[in-house]
Amino acid sequence: MRKARAEDMEVLQRLASEDDHTAVQPTHVFVKLGAEGQEEEIIGCASIASIPLVLPWFHTERCKGRDSRFLIGVMENVLAELSGDRPQQWICVPVVKGSPFEGVMGRLGYLAADEVRLHFKQVKK
User: ∠44-1-53 over CA atoms, to 5°?
Assistant: First the structure.
C-alpha cells in the first residue's frame, strides 16, 4: 500500500468502474508488485479518514422537517469550510432503515449506497 498520487486518480476511477465499483476520494492505493523489472499492478484503493462521517440526531417531536433540512445545510456549510483548498468534499451521513430521512436524502443531493452496513471497531494504539 502506498499514498495515492494525482496521476492515480483517473486510473483508479477507470479500474473501479470496469469492476462495477467506485473509488471515492482515495488516499491510498493497494498495489501488487510484479516480478523483478515489472511495474506494480493496482489492485484496489482506500479512502482513509478522508470523508467526514456525520452522525446527526434530530429529536423526533421537537425538530420538524424544515428544521432538520436547515441543519443539514448548516452541517454541509461547516464541512465545506473545513475542507480548505480542496475543490470538493464528500460527506457520509448514514440513515437507518425506516428513518423519515430515507426518502429525503436523495432530494437533498445525497447518493444512496444500496444495502451497505457500516462496521465499527475501536482500533487500539
Answer: 70
Cell of 12: 483508479
Q: Which amino acid is at 20?
A: D
Give the helix, strand, coil percentages of the chain, each rounded to 5: 30, 10, 60
Burial class (CB in 10 A: 0-12, 13-18, 19+), 72: buried
| Residues 72, 77, 81, 86, Cα dihedral to 10° | 90
Cα–Cα distance between 15 and 36 in angstroms, integer?
Answer: 24
Query: What are 43-70's pLDDT values in tens digits?
Result: 999 999 888 888 888 998 999 989 999 9
Please give the grid coordinates belonging to residue 70.
436547515
- Cα separation, 12 vs 45, whole angstroms: 8
| Overall pTM surpassing 0.90 (yes/no) | no
Cell representation of residue 34? 510484479
pLDDT beyond 70 at 87: no
